[in-house]
Design goal:
Elements (H helix, E strand, L loop, with lengths): L5 H14 L4 E5 L2 H12 L3 E6 L3 E6 L1 E2 L2 E2 L4 E3 L8 E2 L13 E6 L2 E4 H7 L3 E7 L1
Antiparallel strand pairs: 1-3, 2-3, 4-5, 6-10, 7-10, 8-9, 8-10
Length: 127
């Protein structure tokens, strides 16, 4: 059964897998989820990911037995979209986390959107 918010579903699956100390989690494949997973790899929040025809297999990262991701939150929702300008991108946990934005130049981390001076939809925050 398809979910009404696939990004929130991905975030919940990753969060739940971390709580249960799983090594891997599977999420249905989409271009948006692949872009988010790539940002998580680039920023060091997950080890890696692989794609199959229908799923993305995300290998979770642990540091001394504790999850690398302390928290994740969906900001913009299908019922209430939240858009920010490049200079108005909020700080996450006093600068210890990242924002993920969907911009006209693709899905990027918040600091990258500020560098490129481009705003967009604030998808989620990770710390």
């Amino acid at each position: 059964m398809p979910t009404s918010d696939p990004i929130a579903d991905m975030i919940a699956r990753i969060r739940n897998a971390h709580i249960a100390l799983h090594k891997e989690v599977r999420v249905p494949r989409s271009k948006m989820k692949r872009a988010i997973a790539q940002i998580l790899v680039d920023e060091g929040y997950i080890q890696s990911f692989e794609e199959t025809e229908r799923e993305i297999h995300i290998r979770l990262k642990y540091v001394t037995g504790k999850p690398a991701i302390k928290g994740m939150a969906r900001v913009s929702k299908p019922s209430c979209r939240r858009y920010v300008k490049a200079k108005e991108t909020p700080k996450v946990q006093s600068g210890l986390g990242i924002n993920i934005l969907s911009t006209p130049r693709g899905v990027v981390a918040g600091y990258r959107a500020q560098q490129e001076n481009v705003g967009g939809e604030l998808l989620c925050q990770i710390w």
